[in-house]
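Z., the sequence and structure:
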Amino acid sequence: MREQSHSFILDGAEFVSSAPLDRPVEQPSDSLTDFADRPTARDGPGPEQKLVWASLVIAAALALILWPTATLSYVRTGLWVLFLVVSVIRGIAVFISAPPQILPPSLIRAGRLPIYSVIVPLYKEANMVKQMVRNLKALNYPQKAIDVIFAIEADDSQTLHALTKQRLPSWMRIIIAPPGSPQTKPRACNVALDQALGRLVVIYDAEDRPHPDQLIEAAYRFMAADEQLACLQAPLRILPGKGFWCRQFALEYAAHFETFLPALAKVGSAVPLGGTSNHLRVDTLRQLGG
């Protein structure tokens, strides 16, 4: 089916979609078969990779047998050097990073906004469904411009039952990934991507509680930049618990997303993405193979 462009006016803003809004929801096929000639996780490690790992394991075993004291000493020294280098880099990041400018949503109320697809891959997470649906309903992006897709596996009847019990609104739908391998959330996201209606897409995990203005701010940032901006990483903030390790976990996330990643972006380095809250241009993502 050839894609068409649709637009409509809502609350003074114009919204644009690159696909028909009345596209039927079906149980899609395995989209990864379209990239059978490309390396994917389905292929597993190649012969060269297996040879390298086997050689390293054999070399490490021989070193421990022949020179146990010296080997452990070198390993310990190497780990300390690695830890020191990482600490220095993070220390530098504190001085060169700057928090991104907060953009008020009112700046784009009268602008040209895209349809936003939200993909939520779920597997054996029926207990998180009610909370996730509530969090998505709290988003400030106009509901007629949101396309929420819950991507679940064919053998996950519990999550499917939990979703159907919620009586999802018309802008939320369920897509069941067909049986296949590798049975992973990235594969489920690819299946959902084939059915996405938006020009922008974001991926959330079941336990996420996105800020209500996150979509509208991301849309503005994409609109304000050129086509070279293909992806935005929202900062992940862990709500600190009462225990010591819970607070350390929250501190680690804060240092990584609030300091280290902004520093990498400022110096023009590659920015590693987290596993959730990634905002992407749909066309670019499809061109890359998902």
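The mean pLDDT is 83. Helices lie at 47-66, 68-96, 129-137, 157-165, 185-195, 214-224, 244-266, 282-287.

Let me know what you think.
H.
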